[in-house]
User: Fold this.
Amino acid sequence: MRLQFLPAARADLDAIFDYTVKQWGLAQAERYLRDMQATCESLRAGRIKGRSAEHVRSGYRKAASGSHMIYFKLADERLIVVRILHQSMDVERHL
Assistant:
């Protein structure tokens, strides 16, 4: 299975990185994004499955990584990361 990030998810990663650098420094930002990438890789490899997010969008799943939730869907041998949202964000508004 291939891992794909939609443009909105890539923008989320950039924003998360920038915010974390400003708040906690470069080392913490790099560590946080490495952990997030590891979660995505575990999803891709099937080591973790995530939970249903059908209440938000049909076919969507989610998995926690730090203070964020990774929203994704499976299609054509791809795990597609749709958005990466902070747990305090209004999910329905951003998806």
About this structure: The chain has one domain: 2-87.
